[in-house]
Design goal:
The complex is a heterodimer. By secondary structure, chain A is an all-alpha fold. Chain A has 13 helices and no strands. The longest helix of chain B is centred in the C-terminal third of the chain and has 37 residues. The chains are: A mainly alpha, B alpha+beta.
Chain lengths: ~325, ~675
């Protein structure tokens, strides 16, 4: 087991190395005008101590842009490994500080919608599988399909239109009310929760579909297996068949999948956060991307790549952990 | 082996009308056999959701690819509309100030003279006098009244000959310590003695040689001495005896001129009194008038020199020449009319002015007269507003007049409203037709879904947007499949290090965050101001390049299992070339899975594309896609008011993606009913 984990970790590091290399190549080949614009801006700031050319050289050296792409990548990598991610251009604070300020909002949003997804999708998926080809089944299938097919931006706009414009229950964007500063601690919490409601609903609705389908498919497979037929044949009550024999076995792929989703809770919701003005990591990175904030983008992309690899690793390990039939090699 | 088709045999039997039904139990024709394709088709159409999806897709394709052929609006066609706008058409008022026209260009009249003409002219009328002198540092001018509305300004040689007045003038400063007076002007003999005779330190007054002097303390031991003026002071001794009297009398009356000894003298009021001037050598410089020239005919351009000459001849009734043409001005039927040599009426001189509000062009003479009459009636009756219907020249979107084929002005009837302002002016309003971009129009017969913020027809944009969105889906999925099949096929067939390498590559591409990369790319292309078609191509290529990993993984898995099957052993045994073995024998067996993956992929690509376009980082204006259409009305205000644009389009995206997913699901079930959903 330990050997497997170490092997997988090393392998993930290798993949990360190449993924970051590809991203670095992309950044390296971006029009140089971005760095030039930044240098010009820095040099014309009041109290600037360096001239434009000095800044340009400095910025290029910082990201290894003055060397070849491979050499430059190692320059960047060596500073990144040492935890030196530089200062964000867009947010004018160290990248790690901005990350720390934003990631928890994203996590809160992700966690809330994750919990709701699980609560809603799994029971629905199981019910649909129990009564295959019934109305419930069709209904669930259609709902799942709509949820998968809904563009996030459309759903977000629709929710904003209904709840913010027409009903006026919540603010259009932002995550704090006007009088946030004057509220008590609990009041502040409630205010935040109110502003997080629509984004959470959006994420839940978008995420529900695939989970529901996955549950239904796996449940169907389990229900068609021999041991269920055996259980039914020997007269086990249907409730027990579903609840004990079938559901427990369905849990294997489900736990694997949900475990794999856990790291993703930190990655932030790029579009949802941007549209609702939730100042999480997705919002921050979206504006960094449009403003070509190289330090923050590099950090964010590295971060989500790590999260993806971590998710794969967790789901592999969980698979082995919950299913005794699986032997890791 | 002879071809042997059960279905054809069955058909042949049915065709023969063999109704005996003598089919033996061992007859091959007894069992109806479906080809694998038909089997799949039959299973597919049994799935209601899949059929629903297919119908939706067909409708969508017809709508976006055939729809534009039958719809009259283009993708980038901007629509305009005529809109009427109430504008200030004209301004009517009684002219109260005098405007000057140059008669002779030789004489330059300084600004100090021209600025005082209006006030002097009005005072002359008030005093009922005929001429006054305007003395400036740059020369003197004589303003002569022709009638109340016309004044002639002439340059003269004027000299100050006398002054009269009450007041005081500083004569000198008395220094008590030195005991002498420093005079400011000419020394007055004996003044010192007269002063010191009765000197008081606090100040006082004394009389010397008939002139009264006062003195007051200025600084310590220094006194200012003032002479008090009273009476006429003559600067010229050759003046006639009666002059001083006449001057004083005229000055008392505050007249502008007087005569003495058969000569006319002019008076100018100063701070301390009046100065008398004699003038000679009159040269006409300018003519000032309250009249405005209302052109009766548009053929003759009334130049400033014609105006000046007309005004000079306004009372004498003689004809005069300007630029080789002879003109005559005279009164007829109470109007002052300017005619040319043939007696043709050119202009009317009037003190009532009616002009376009912005001054861009003139108003027809008849309309001017009509407005004047109405205004007169209004002021008599004390009315505030009045309306009038008149045929106004039609103006297009640029404010230009519209002519028909024969060059005649086009007229349209307009209702003019005359309103009196508190300033005494009359404003004429009318509704003017203007030509504007038809923005955010609501549904109408011409534009079924209305128009958007750029004046584009929404329905047309939705159709063309569907084209782009579907096309992007096709191209990207095609790229993904091609790349995926090649890579997956190579990996699966060869195995070993090739497989290892390609699968590691697949892992890397799986890990690449594609949406952030697309956003970064979009922002970069934004900063490069790339052409929208080029953007489209680059976007499709990148999406395809980032998406092949899934296809490759699937193809490899399938090929790995197919490779072990007997038909592949047979293919190998018959010595078929490797390339043929892969592409003729293996890939066709992966086809069902490929079709399913392609159908599902289409939906997700359309989602990605519309998201990018919505963020403004994908396809750009003026090219339409469903994402950009929603983006164009996504601001808070537009969202609230133009839901008839973005809601249908959003639903279209949603429906298309759902349809692709349903069809994909249905196909998968149809190909392999036992497979996982």
């Amino acid at each position: 087991m330990a050997k497997f984990i170490i092997k997988r970790l090393l392998y993930s590091v290798l993949i990360l190395f190449f993924v970051m290399f590809l991203i670095y190549v992309l950044m390296y080949n971006m029009p140089t005008s971005f760095v030039e614009t930044k240098a010009r801006e820095l040099a014309s700031r009041p109290g600037a101590t360096k001239s434009y050319t000095e800044w340009l050289a400095d910025l290029n050296a910082q990201y290894g842009m003055d060397k070849g792409v491979v050499q430059g990548y190692f320059v960047w990598l060596s500073s990144a490994v040492r935890g030196n991610w530089g200062d964000s251009w867009q947010w004018t604070v160290p990248v790690l500080e901005k990350f720390n300020n934003t990631v928890w909002y994203s996590f809160a949003l992700g966690l809330v919608s994750f919990i709701f997804e699980v609560i809603i999708a799994i029971p629905l998926g199981i019910t649909a599988a129990k009564k295959q080809y019934s109305f419930t089944d069709y209904f669930t299938t259609v709902v799942a399909m709509v949820s998968i097919s809904l563009p996030t931006f459309f759903l977000a706009t629709l929710l904003k239109y209904v709840f913010a414009v027409k009903l006026g229950w919540v603010d259009l964007t932002g995550m704090q009310g006007r009088d946030y500063q004057f509220l008590s601690t609990f009041g502040k919490f409630l205010d935040l929760a109110k502003h997080f409601a629509l984004p959470a609903v959006t994420l839940t609705v978008i995420g529900i579909g695939s989970l529901m389908r996955y549950t239904r498919t796996n449940m169907l497979e389990v229900l068609n297996s021999d041991y269920i037929r055996t259980a039914r044949a020997k007269g086990v009550p249907e409730k027990k068949v579903i609840g004990k024999h079938a559901f427990r076995n369905t849990l294997i792929p489900l736990v694997t999948m949900l475990g794999g989703m856990l790291p993703g809770l930190f990655s932030g919701a790029l579009i949802t956060e941007t549209l609702f003005g939730i100042r999480g990591i997705g919002y921050a990175s979206y504006y960094s991307m449009t403003q070509a904030d190289i330090p923050f983008i590099m950090f964010y992309l590295a971060f989500i790549s790590v999260l993806t690899l971590l998710g794969n690793l967790i789901s592999d390990l969980l698979y082995a952990a919950v299913d005794p039939r699986v032997r890791l090699s | 082996m002879a071809s042997y088709n059960l279905n054809e045999i069955l058909k042949a039997k049915a065709g023969k009308g063999d109704k005996q039904g003598t089919v033996g139990l061992d007859d091959v024709a007894r069992v109806k056999v479906l080809s694998p394709g038909r089997q799949v088709f039959k299973r597919f159409i049994r799935n209601r959701l899949a059929v629903f999806g297919s119908v939706l897709l067909i409708i969508m394709f017809v709508f976006s690819f055939l729809g534009p052929l039958f719809y009259h609006c283009g993708q980038k066609e901007i629509f305009y509309k005529y809109d009427s706008q109430n504008i200030n058409y004209g301004l009517a008022k009684e002219i109260t100030s005098y405007t000057g026209y140059n008669v002779s260009s030789d004489i330059s009249v300084p600004r100090s003279a021209t600025t005082s003409v209006n006030s002097v002219a009005k005072s002359l009328i008030a005093a009922d006098e005929d001429s006054a002198i305007i003395a400036t540092d740059d020369g003197s001018f004589l303003l002569n009244r022709v009638n109340d509305d016309v004044f002639v300004l002439a340059s003269v040689n004027a000299s100050k000959i006398a002054s009269v007045g009450e007041g005081s003038a500083l004569v000198g400063v008395y220094d008590m310590v030195g005991g002498k007076i420093s005079f400011t002007g000419q020394e007055i003999e004996g003044l010192l003695e007269a002063l010191t005779k009765n000197f008081s330190r606090t100040g006082g007054s004394f009389t010397y040689e008939g002139v009264r002097y006062t003195y007051e303390k200025d600084v310590a031991k220094s006194y200012n001495i003032y002479s008090e003026l009273d009476g006429v002071v003559l600067f010229d001794n050759s003046l006639p005896e009666a002059f001083a009297d006449a001057f004083e009398k005229a000055a008392d009356k505050k007249a502008y001129s007087f005569t003495a000894g058969g000569k006319t003298y002019y008076i100018v009021e100063t701070n301390s009194g009046f100065d008398a001037y004699s003038a000679s050598g009159e040269k006409t410089a300018m003519v000032y008038t309250r009249y405005t020239f209302n052109a009766i005919t548009t053929d003759v351009k009334i130049s400033d020199s014609l105006k000046a000459n007309t005004l000079l001849h306004i009372t004498d009734g003689k004809s005069f020449d300007v630029d080789g043409t002879s003109y005559k001005v005279g009164e007829s039927e109470g109007l002052i009319i300017l005619k040319d040599g043939d007696g043709k009426e050119i202009a009317e001189l009037s003190t009532f002015s009616v002009k376009r509000y912005s001054g861009e062009d003139s108003i027809e003479y008849d309309l001017k007269k009509e407005i004047e009459e109405l205004v007169l009636e209004m002021s008599e009756n004390g009315e505030k507003t009045r309306t009038l219907v008149y045929d106004l020249p039609y103006q297009d979107e640029n404010g230009l007049y519209v002519y028909d084929e024969e060059g005649n002005l086009q007229y349209s009837q307009a209702e003019l409203t005359i309103t009196k302002r508190d300033t005494g002016e009359y404003v004429i309003n009318c509704d003017q037709v203007i030509y504007v971009i038809d923005m955010f129009a609501f549904s109408s017969k011409e534009h079924i879904l209305g128009t958007d913020g750029d004046g584009f027809d929404v329905l047309a944009r939705v159709m063309y947007g569907g084209r782009v969105s579907l096309m992007v889906g096709f191209v990207v999925v095609f790229l993904e499949i091609i790349l995926g099949v090649i890579m997956g096929g190579l990996a699966g067939y060869y195995g070993g290090w090739v497989d290892n390498l390609i699968m590691r590559l697949v892992d890397i591409f799986y890990c690449l965050p594609s949406l952030p990369i697309m956003i970064i790319l979009g922002a970069t292309m934004d900063s490069l101001r790339m052409d929208t078609y080029l953007r489209l191509v680059i976007m499709m290529a990148t999406l395809g390049f980032l998406g092949w990993a899934g296809v490759a993984r699937m193809v490899r898995g399938q090929i790995l299992s197919l490779r072990e099957q007997e038909f592949m052993v047979a293919a190998e045994a018959t010595g078929i070339r490797v390339r043929k073995r892969i592409f003729r024998h293996l890939i066709p067996n992966v086809m069902p899975q490929l079709i399913v993956i392609a159908t599902m992929g289409m939906g997700s690509v359309i989602l990605t594309e519309s998201t990018l376009s919505f963020l403004g980082l994908g396809v750009k204006h003026p090219l339409a896609t469903w994402g950009t259409i929603i983006n164009s009305v996504s601001s808070a205000t537009a969202m609230a008011h133009y839901q008839h644009i973005w809601i249908p389009v959003g639903l279209l995206i949603c429906l298309t993606v759902i349809a692709f997913n349903f069809v994909g699901d249905g196909l998968r079930d149809a190909y392999d009913p036992k497979s996982k959903r």
